[in-house]
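Lab notebook, bench 4. Still working through the backlog of constructs that have no structural model yet. Next entry is a single chain of 558 residues. Request: give me the C-alpha cells for it.
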Amino acid sequence: MRGNRKCVMMTVFAVGAAAAMPLTASAEISLEKAYEVAGSGRFVNGSNLLIMEGNSGYYLTSMDGQIKSEEIYGRTTENEYGMIIVNQNNGDFNNTGALNQNGQEMIPTKYGDIDVLNDEWALGITLKEATADQYDYKNLWGDEAYYLIDTVDVYHVTDGTATCHTTFPRENIIDAQAYGSYINIQDRATSTVDTYDASFQKVASDVGDIYAEPEANVKLIVYREDGRCGVKDAQGNIVIEPSFSMIGDFRYGYAEVYSDDKRGLIDEQGNVAVKPVYDDVERLFYLPYVNEYGAGYGYNVNGYFAVVQDGKFGYIDSQGNTTMEPKYSESAIEVNGASAILTDLEGNRRLLAADGTETVLEGYERIVPLLNGSGIYYRTEDAEYNEGMIDWHGNEIIPCENDDIMISGDGKYVLVDADYGDSMVEVYKLPGAETEAPTGETAAAAETEAPAEETAAAETEAPAEKTTAAAETEAPAEKTGDTGSAKALLESAAALLDNDSAEIRISVKILVQQAAATIGDQNEAAVILLDNVLEMLETEGTDAAGIKGIISSVTALL
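Model written out:
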C-alpha cells in the first residue's frame, strides 16, 4: 500500500494576468494567460481542478497551482454532479471515493464503486470477491475477476460535505433513484420502494415505482383539460393555460411541448422558450458541465436553439429569430452545440455557426469539438497529431504546435500543454472569464523537491466496473487521446440509437468513427470494440440495444 504523505514535490508558479497569448497574429480572439503550473497534468473532466502526475501517484491542484489533495490517486478521475470520483493508488479493488470541488475528501476511498445519483445523493458500494456463477460486477480488463455487492452506504451531500445516513446489506437494496432532496430505494427481497428525505426519514412507503417522483419535489404539474395540456405550480395556480397536445418531463431546464406533430420548449418558469412550430428541437452536446444536471449538454447554448424543419437543420435565437436557415439535411450534419459540421459527398467540411456564419475548413487533418467548449471552440490536429484550436467561425486561435489542449468544466479556461516533456502547463482565459484569486498561501510558496526527469508508467489500479464495463490500466505520461471528447461523441451516438433507423445509423457511424479517431492508438481495446460497433451498424438486422451495450463498454474503458 502506498504511503499517504502530502504531495510536496514541486515549485508551482501562479501568474495573475499576462500579455495576450502570442500564438497567432490573425485570430479574432487573443487569449490572456491566467496561470502556469509546473508538472504534467490536465483538467479533471467536467471540473476546473487539475489532475497532476506525481512521483508515486496523482494529485489535484487548483488552476493557480495550489495543491488540493494527497499524491495517492490514479489518473482516472471524473466530475459527476460536482463530486470528483477518484481511485486510490493502493491496488485494492475497494479503492474508490469522492472529493469535492476543493479537493477535500467527501466519500472515503474504500468502495468498489461510487454510484452518484444526483447532486445530493450518492451510493458507496463495497464489493467482495465472487465467482462467474453469481456476480454483480465483472472486471473485463486484465485478469478476469468477479465481485458481489457486500454493502451499500447511502450518502447525502450538502455544500461539498457528504453524510453517510445508513448502510444496507445487498439483500435490502437493488436500485435507487434520486429527485432533488428525496431518494427512492427499492428492496431486493420484497421489491417494495420507499421514499426518504434529506435527513433519511421515510416519507412514503411502498410507492410502487422506483421512478415515482415525490410530490414534494414537483414544482410544476402538467394537467389536461378538454384534451389539451397546461401547467400548474405546486399550489395549483395555473402557469400555462391548456394549449399543448402533450408536455414532456423537464430536462436540463426545459420540457418539450407538442402542438399536434410540432415541437417546442418551455422553461422551468413556464415560459415558452421555443414555439411548437418545428419538427424537432435538438439536444446539444459539448456544453459546459452543470453539476445540477450531471452533464454538459442541454437545449440552450449561448442563447441559441437548434431546430429541425422538414428534415433540414438550423438555429434560432432566444427571441425566436432564425439565425441560420434550416437548409441542410439533418442526416448530413454533426451538431456540436452552437455550431455544426457539414461534410459533403466529396468529404469537404464546412463549419456552420449558429449566428449564420459558414466557413470552409481546410488545412487540418482532424477537427474535433472541444468538451465544454459549447461548439464555439474546436481542437484541430495536423498529420503529426499536434494540436491547436479554432473558433466557430474557423479563426485559428492556437496553431497546431501543442501536445494537448482542453477546456475547463465551466467552459471559461483553456489548458495548453505545449510539450509533455517540459513539465509545464499553461491556462488561458477565454473571453468572458475572470482570473480566479488564489486562496490561502500562494502556490509559488509551495516549493518542494523537483520532479524526476521521467516518471515510470502508472500501475494498473482501476476498480471493478459493472458487467458491461472494463477496468482501466493507467497509461504512461505520454501523448494521449482526448477521452472526454471521445466519451461525449459516444454518448451522442448512444442517444441517437434510441430512435434507431437507417438514417440514424449513418449519423451514429460518423460519431463512432470520430470517437475512434480521437482515441487513436492510446486505447487499442476501445478501438477494437468500436470497429465491432461499425460492423454491426453496417449489418442489417443487428439490435440497437446490443450496439449501445458495446458503446457503454467503450465509454467505461475511457
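Notes after review: Residues 81-217 form one domain. The longest helix spans residues 502-519. Flag for follow-up if needed.
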